[in-house]
Structures are given as structure tokens and as C-alpha cells.
Amino acid sequence: MPEPDPYRLALVGPPNCGKTSLFNALTGARQKVGNYAGVTVERKVGLFTTPAANRIELIDLPGTHSLRARSPDEAVTRDVVLGRHPAEPAPQLMLVVVDAVAPRSGLRLAMELVATGLPMIVVLNMIDIARHRKIEIDRAALQAELGVPVVTSTAVRKGGLEELLTTLDATLAEGVPEAGPNLWAPPDAADLRLSHRAADRLIARAVTLPPEHDTLTHRIDKLLLHPVFGLAFLLGLLFVMFQAVFSWAAPVMDLIDGSFTAVADLIRAHVPEGLVQSFLVDAVIGGVGGVVIFLPQIVILFLFILLLEDLGYMARAAFLMDRIMGGAGLHGRAFIPLLSSFACAIPGIMATRVIDNPRDRFTTILVAPLMTCSARIPVYTLIVSAFIPARSIFGIFSLQGLVMFGLYGAGIVSALAVSAVAKFLFARGEPSPPFMLDLPDYKIPQGRSVAIGLWTRAMAFLKRAGTTIFTMTVVIWVLATFPQAPEGATQPAILYSFAAGIGKLLEPILSPIGFNWQMAVAIVPAMAAREIAVAGLATVYAVSEGGGEAVLGTLLASQWSLATALSFLVWFIFAPQCISTLAVIKRETGSGKWMWVTVAYMFALAWLACFLTYHLAVLIGWG
Ligand SMILES: Nc1nc2c(ncn2[C@@H]2O[C@H](COP(=O)(O)OP(=O)(O)OP(=O)(O)O)[C@@H](O)[C@H]2O)c(=O)[nH]1
Ligand SMILES: [Mg+2]
């Protein structure tokens, strides 16, 4: 007998009320959660079985305050709930999640959702915090007013879902009620006022707030949202973050480096000199190993980002930066997408779905690839450690760390500059409405969720090293090795290879900015992933040096001028070296136009900036 179809349930609620935490707890998934609005921007589906063996297909949705959706992420929720989504039939039952600490917007949404006719269960989540704060909620009154079951939950605690599961099974045992007629219509301003008043009445009847309002969050915010001290704190925090990425990681990186060198020595000792040895040492260890070394830096960066997300600081930073970003024509909501782009532009671009005005959204998408993503870290670190002396300044800051900070700064400043130009170019249309931001309460980060987040990111990085980066490194090795030098050749073997031929072909475009042909061979395949530039340089130089033992950094320092090195760094600030990002831009904007605009302006900017940097450096005498 075929199994009956699972019940289709959807998690609906305002932003940041814990929908995804519930989703993860119920289905065992590892979707991203974070203490700010707009973490989830697309629908996710998972399966689970209740204690009474009911099979459930659960849909996690982006948060929204109303079905009157404004931004692309909210539109997903509206379409799924109203059964208009092309790939998703309407759910049979909604779990309407309400933040028990700040129940207003959730209860308002629940009242609006009653009109859809879909059966629902209201889940008062974060009840742990509500109890701690002595917020009392009269569930019987809520149940009577809304006419639906109301349960409490703590999504992030073991056993916090028992009541929800019991009620769910009881509801399903009676058979899911048929959906009533859908009477929902987009509310106008008068409807909205009415519904806000109705929600206020409901809260007045069912929720008792403790008298004092001066919570810890308020006290911390007095400092951290201070216009001067707050900004100084934010700047200091970012500075510490980049110093940490650069200096804390060093000992672990040395350790990894040491073990790779040991393995390479083993291979040299046991595998006869020739193609096999060259492949293993130059491509696999030199190339892929050369990238894997950067894992500690990536992990430290993500640790900072995950902690800030979970603490609830992100929205504060957005609030502080709103004025500065507004001056450059960026919407306050652009901050979190841009900050996420420090990790990777792809989730950053996806996160722009929370911006409702298309012009603001496209401007953010346009500049997101300028933020320093983690794939640039290996390139920056390699060049900075090879060319910038490891001195300390004022005895505390490392000069190398300062240069790294400068590279990040250059990305941020150029993103602001490009968006200011974009604002000037498409200044038509009315100004964006003011930025309304929910500041979530601070929360102690959940160790488990931070650990899972770190693990997922680290695995993704290693997977990239084992797939894309490995493949491209092998391609580069083949190109740099074949055809082999003819008998009696007088020049180095690599000059007879395909790689040299390709590099020479690109030389006319790249020599004005100080690049040699080896760099051309490294940056073309690095379109697949920026780290390949490091693997590529390692492989090309290793092959041309006949598998010499020199460390890549030392080798580069002996072969490149400082002017060339600086130009190479600048190239990686600006050039659109990432095909996946371009593909996501195309998908998220729904047309190839914005993708080509991005490619064109970034390449043009990269070339010009490199040209200036290189010639200026030569003038100074660094040529
Ligand atoms: N203490 C406590 N924290 C919770 C609970 N549920 C969620 N959280 C925290 O609340 C924050 C928001 O959780 P998410 O699951 O990302 O919220 P969401 O509703 O999916 O948010 P969006 O996707 O942005 O709409 C995270 O920091 C969670 O760790 C809970 O029951 N108790
Ligand atoms: Mg979510």
C-alpha cells in the first residue's frame, strides 16, 4: 500500500520570531538562523514524523509583518500562504509563530491570517525569555479570541517542542479541518489602522507586561547606539576582527604548512622524479594545499560574523551606518547584505531580497561584489606576507594587519563611491521611504548553532578546495607542463608550454598594469574561484622552478617588484573574479543586463585602478 501523502504545514510569522529555529528543531535541518530580521529569504522544505507517526512536510518561510507583501522575500510567504506559488500548493495547516516577548506583530499577523480560511495553530515561541522577564500571557483568552489552539515553545531548547507536537497530533487525529473560504484582501490604510487597534485590544486583554522596562538590552544600547561612541565601537570591532583573522590564525597555518611540506618531502623521497612527482607536489600539494592552509583564517572570520549575528549586533551596526550609507545612496537595509558579503557575495546578494524598492535593491546588488569576500583572503594574505615587512606599529598593530585592514577599507569605500555614482545616474523616482528597523533583544549565542555554522562553512571551503580548486589546478598544471620542452632546448621548459602561450597572448592587456604572463595564467582560471589564483601561481612557479623547495611567498618576493604586487592586490579588490556571483546576480535581478553592467564596471575599475597603482608605485621607486 503506498504511504499517504504527508500533511503540508507552513511556518508563518514576523521576522526573527524563531521560525527557522523551530524548523531546524522539528526536521533536524541546519538552515541558517540569526538574531536579526531577514535571515530566511526563500522557502525551505523539510520532512519529519510526529510522535503519533503523522508524516509532515514542513515549509519554512521568510518572515513578514503582513500578507500585504512589499519585498521579494515577503512575496514568497504571501504566495505560498495564498496558494499562488507556482511550485507549492497552499499548506493544509499553518503554524503561526509569535515572539512571546514582543507578541504584537505576531498576533496582528495571526488575526490577519484568520481571513485566509486556513486552519492554524498559534505558537508562542521564546517562552523561556518571556517567563524570565515575567511577561504573562493568558492563553485561554488568546484561544477564545482567535478561535484557534495556542501553544508555547522554546525552539532552541531540547524538549521545548513537546506541547506543540502533542497539540499537532491531537489536531491531526481529528482530521485537519477543511480550509474555509479565503476572504483575505489586501488591506488599505484604514484596514491597517483597524487591525492595529484590534491587536492592541487583544494584547491589552491577554498579555501582562512587567512594570519596569529598563532591560539589559536598553542599557547596552545606550552605549552601543550612541552616535559617537557607538560608531567608534563598531570601527574598533571591525579592526579587531581583521587583526584577529590575520594574527590569531598564524600559528595554526604554520602547523598546516609544516605538515604539507613534510608530505611533499616524503613524496620527493619515494616517488621518482618526473611527471607523477611533479603532479603530486606541484599541483596537489602546492596548489590545493596552498589554499587549504587558509582554513584557519576563514574559520576565524566566520566565527566573528556568526557571533555578531547571534548576539543581535548586526541590526545595531546597520542602524549606526544608516546615515553614512544613506549619504552614498544606499538604503539602511543594505547594511546586512553588504556585511554578509564579507563572507561571500552570494548570500549577500540573496539577502537583498528584504529591500522592497527595486532601485535600492539593484544598487546594493551592484556593489556587493566589492566587499571583501573570504575567497580574497588567501590572495591578500599571500601577497601581503610576501611583500609587506612583518613590523609592528606603536608596538601593538602589525603592519601586515594594517594593510589587510586597508584592503578591506578600499572595498568598502569603493562600494560607497560606486553606489553614490549609481544614485546620481538613476536619481529618478521618489526617495525611498525611511528605514524602519527592528532592533532585536541581545541574546547569548547558542554554542551549538555557532558550532554547526562554523562546521558548515569550513566543510564548504574544503569541498571547494577538493572540487573546483583541485580541478582548475590540475588544468593549470597540464597547461604548464605540456607540451614539454623539445630535445636540446635552451630555455626553461615552461616557456614551451600552453600556459606560456596563453599568458603571452594576454600580455598586451596586462603588461600596462604590471602583470607578467604567469599572473595571466593564474587570474584567468581564477574566474571560477578567486583562491585559484594562489593555487595557480603556486603551480606555475613550482613547475617553472623545477619543483624547487622555495615557499611561494619567498619566490614571488624574488620575482615581482613591489609595484607589481600592489597592482595584483588592487586587481583582486575590484575585478569580478567569480562566475557564481555573476550567475546569482543574473538570477536575482531576473535579467542578464545587471550582470553585464557588473562585469563591465568591475573590470574597467580594476584595470584603471591597477594602472594607476602600478605607475604610481613605479614613480615612487617601487618598480
Ligand atoms: N531563547 C530563545 N531564543 C530563540 C528561540 N527561538 C529562536 N531563538 C533565537 O532567536 C533568533 C531568531 O531565530 P530564527 O529562527 O532565525 O528566526 P526566524 O523567524 O527564522 O527569522 P527570519 O528568518 O529572519 O524571519 C536566533 O538568534 C535564535 O537563536 C527560543 O525559543 N528561545
Ligand atoms: Mg528564518
Mean pLDDT: 89
Q: What topology, given as strand order, has the largest sheet?
A: 2-3-1-4-5-7
Might you state the CATH topology name of the domain at 7-208? Rossmann fold
Pairing-aware structural class of the strands and helices?
A: alpha/beta
Q: How many E-type strands?
A: 10
Helix content: 55-70%
- What is the CA-atom radius of gyration, in angstroms? 28 Å
Largest sheet: 6 strands, mixed
Bound compounds, each kind once, are: guanosine-5'-triphosphate, magnesium ion
What is the CATH architecture annotation of the domain at 7-208? 3-Layer(aba) Sandwich
Put simply, the count of helices is: 26
Low-confidence stretches: none
Task: Name the CATH class of the domain at 7-208.
Answer: Alpha Beta
**Cα-to-Cα separation, first versus last residue:** 78 Å
Beta-strand share of residues: 5-15%
The CATH homologous superfamily of the domain at 7-208 is called P-loop containing nucleotide triphosphate hydrolases
Structure description:
With 623 residues, this protein is an alpha/beta fold. It has a domain at 7-208: Rossmann fold (3-Layer(aba) Sandwich), CATH 3.40.50.300. It is built from 26 helices and ten strands. The chain has helices at 19-27, 72-81, 104-114, 127-132, 139-146, 162-173, 189-206, 216-224, 229-247, 250-270, 275-292, 295-311, 314-327, 335-340, 345-351, 358-367, 376-387, 399-425, 447-481, 498-510, 517-523, 532-544, 552-559, 562-574, 579-589, 592-620; strands spanning 7-12, 44-49, 55-60, 93-99, 120-125, 136-137, 150-152, 207-208, 392-393, 397-398. Strands 2-3-1-4-5-7 form a six-stranded mixed beta sheet, sandwiched between helices. A two-stranded antiparallel ribbon has the order 6-8. Helix 18 (399-425) crosses helix 24 (562-574). It is elongated, with a radius of gyration of 28 Å. Residues 19-20, 39-40 line the site of magnesium ion (MG). Keywords: Membrane, Transmembrane, Transmembrane helix. InterPro entries: Fe2_transport_prot_B_C, FeoB_GTPase, G_FEOB_dom, Gate_dom, GTP-bd, P-loop_NTPase.
